[in-house]
Amino acid sequence: MSVRVNGIAVDTGDWPSDELAAVHELLRQRAQELDLLDEGADEAARSEAIEQLLAREVHVPEPTPEECRRWYDAHPERYRSGELVHARHILFQVTPGTPVPAIRAVAEAMLKELRVQPELFEARAREKSNCPSGAQGGQLGQLQRGASVPEFDKAVFEGSQLGILPGLVNTRYGFHIVAVDQRIPGEPLPFEAVADRVASELRTAAERRALGQYVRVLAGRAELDGVVLEAAASPLVQ
Question: What is the CATH classification number for the domain harbouring 109?
Answer without folding.
Answer: 3.10.50.40
